[in-house]
Amino acid sequence: xxxxxxxxxxxxxxxxxxxxxxxxxxxxxxxxxxxxxxxxxxxxxxxxxxxxxxxxxxxxxxxxxxxxxxxxxxxxxxxxxxxxxxxxxxxxxxxxxxxxxxxxxxxxxxxxxxxxxxxxxxxxxxxxxxxxxxxxxxxxxxxxxxxxxxxxxxxxxxxxxxxxxxxxxxxxxxxxxxxxxxxxxxxxxxxxxxxxxxxxxxxxxxxxxxxxxxxxxxxxxxxxxxxxxxxxxxxxxxxxxxxxxxxxxxxxxxxxxxxxxxxxxxxxxxxxxxxxxxxxxxxxxxxxxxxxxxxxxxxxxxxxxxxxxxxxxxxxxxxxxxxxxxxxxxxxxxxxxxxxxxxxxxxxxxxxxxxxxxxxxxxxxxxxxxxxxxxxxxxxxxxxxxxxxxxxxxxxxxxxxxxxxxxxxxxxxxxxxxxxxxxxxxxxxxxxxxxxxxxxxxxxxxxxxxxxxxxxxxxxxxxxxxxxxxxxxxxxxxxxxxxxxxxxxxxxxxxxxxxxxxxxxxxxxxxxxxxxxxxxxxxxxxxxxxxxxxxxxxxxxxxxxxxxxxxxxxxxxxxxxxxxxxxxxxxxxxxxxxxxxxxxxxxxxxxxxxxxxxxxxxxxxxxxxxxxxxxxxxxxxxxxxxxxxxxxxxxxxxxxxxxxx
Amino acid sequence: xxxxxxxxxxxxxxxxxxxxxxxxxxxxxxxxxxxxxxxxxxxxxxxxxxxxxxxxxxxxxxxxxxxxxxxxxxxxxxxxxxxxx
Lengths: 645, 85
Hints:
The structure holds 2 protein chains of 2 kinds.
Chain A: E1 6-13, H1 19-27, E2 44-50, E3 53-59, H2 71-82, E4 87-93, H3 97-109, E5 114-119, H4 121-126, E6 129-131, H5 133-140, E7 144-146, H6 155-168, H7 180-196, H8 203-211, H9 215-221, H10 224-241, H11 245-264, E8 265-267, H12 275-283, H13 288-320, H14 323-327, H15 333-371, H16 373-380, H17 382-387, H18 395-403, H19 405-411, H20 418-430, H21 434-448, H22 450-474, E9 483-486, H23 494-528, H24 532-546, H25 552-560, H26 565-575, H27 586-598, H28 603-640
Parallel strand pairs in A: 1-3, 1-4, 4-5, 5-7
Antiparallel strand pairs in A: 2-3, 6-8
Chain B: E1 16-22, H1 26-34, E2 42-47, E3 54-58, E4 61-65, H2 67-70, E5 73-78
Antiparallel strand pairs in B: 1-2, 1-5, 2-3, 3-4
């Protein structure tokens, strides 16, 4: 074996089998995880260093096949084929052995060294079943380790097995044979391929994919003779079996998978109907499902608001009580102002206004993600989504948007087509993220009452619906349909939920806090040098005459482009109070909340849009939403004048 | 064209059906086949109401399939024959 210091190990497997959980446990990484398919949309990397061995671990998106139906499949297939990891850990859901083996068989066809992690083994046992791991390992010719990743069981053994395999570095190739007609044609084709063309895929894999009519592989081979031969074979197979060649191959692969699964699964006791099936009777019911969904949503809203407003008052008052201490410091008035009004007011706003709402919100979001209920919402909303030109799966990135719009925009990759992705991404930027939730709850709900906050949410949802319908009308293409595996319900594991919440909170504390504080200091300097007035006056025509807001609000909107929370934070800095009822009229509070909700995606979201869709489309969305927010805010102001002073 | 094709949409909740063929484009067909909807496979319809997707149980997992796609899955009902017609 050559002297190699760093090994590359990839985690691959079906969607939602626990790859990211294993990744986090192995590397101490911070992959966001959740109980719904399509959570990991791009590969994440981490390192393990132990006893002189350094392993780069790559977490690949979950896929069902190595075909090229979706972007994730292409990403995973190309990574395994082109970057040739030293080993692939195939994470297999023990409960769905047959379906998961279908993918394992394809990994074997790719001829990479494999170790199988038979995950969620506890759930299988709870069903009264067990798997003969030794037999499975013999049949497939790969090591098999049983794991329960969420409880950190079997992972040491998994790591040991991986390490041993890496250090041994042997590369044995096992093949699983197809039926006679298929197998003989694969062999013949593979032989010609190995002689005539050089690809980074193994010849046998290429032969199989050509028989499956895989468009990407066809493009890559180019060789006329091979392609002609493959076509001829496809026709012959169709004649023999009466089905398209790809159907024949997929069926035979499934037959192998089910034969293996049947011979290794052992029944210990009788099967019980799971509580999940029973719960789905309500959660997916055509009437009660929606009632339950609405109740859950309102429940979350009130819980976050009650918790947030209570701690917000408590923390703000406590932090404000330090003011005399700061004022007594022996500093020049200039530095005193910078220190208290700049730095400390920023800290107070961050801790007092933002944190109390964001923390419980992230906690509930993590709980929802881990339980499996999210996929049920996708199910319920499939029909509505079709009216927006999307399908139910789009709801998952949209829900993600409630936490932060950035992962929501990236998460639209689970949509199969570009058009659907773009529509979903635009809608995602309109979803009230946690920063906007802070403003709506901390300003509108706190000073006008929760009902007004709910009205803003409803207005926003109506706007999302209308936008979706308009986009659907003007963007070409008919909507595609939903094909989604329904994840099992899982009792959320507290440790994982807390970790998930902490990962998100940490992001907020590390990234948002410095921005909030620096922005606050900048603002204070502006105010000391009297630079605020000219800017405010410049914005006055739109801000005051059209939107009915105080001119200073325009400044907060400028800062809000950096991060949406800043609008509220800056408002408190400019007026030196967190009691906004004293400085804004109810109508102004409402308009302020509404415009902040929709006026522009923040810088980070714009950057994500640019990355995913290019400058042109990112700019179009940004400008469009900016103009839309001002116009709608102005109209709303005119309407509200009739009801509110 | 053969009329009288039964699709997944026609199967009521609780009933079983055997997959006959898939009548969609290459991409969708493949995806469904890879999820286990291969000719000859028996599936059970778990939920089927006009309000939402069809939920089926196939190979131990539950799949949600949008109504548009379910309309392209040709099946043969597997029924216990009680009353002949």
